[in-house]
Amino acid sequence: MNTQLTVIASIRAKAGHSRALGDRLLQMVETTRNEPGCLEYAIHVSKQHPELWCFYENWRSEADLQVHFETAGFKAMVADVAAWQEGEWDIQYFQMMS
Length: 98
Prior knowledge:
The structure is a single chain. This protein is α+β, with helices and mostly antiparallel strands. The chain has 4 helices and 4 strands, in the order βααββααβ. A hairpin with a 6-residue loop joins β2 (38-45) and β3.
């Protein structure tokens, strides 16, 4: 069984806060890509709705992702963006099948 896990998560910025939210999300890219088990980590912004940001992540295993969630950097990012986000995160987890 393949243990690779794909995460697709989105977050919407409050009006006027997309740049601040996006800048903070982008600060996570380099350090997260260097974490054990991180296969891919990318941040996207919607062309139609510039307040909508998306994470596309591939992790070797769910255990590796859980370690990421416990890092100080991840916890700080979640706390920081709370002031700029509209609503809740939408997070979907997918198991690699091919």
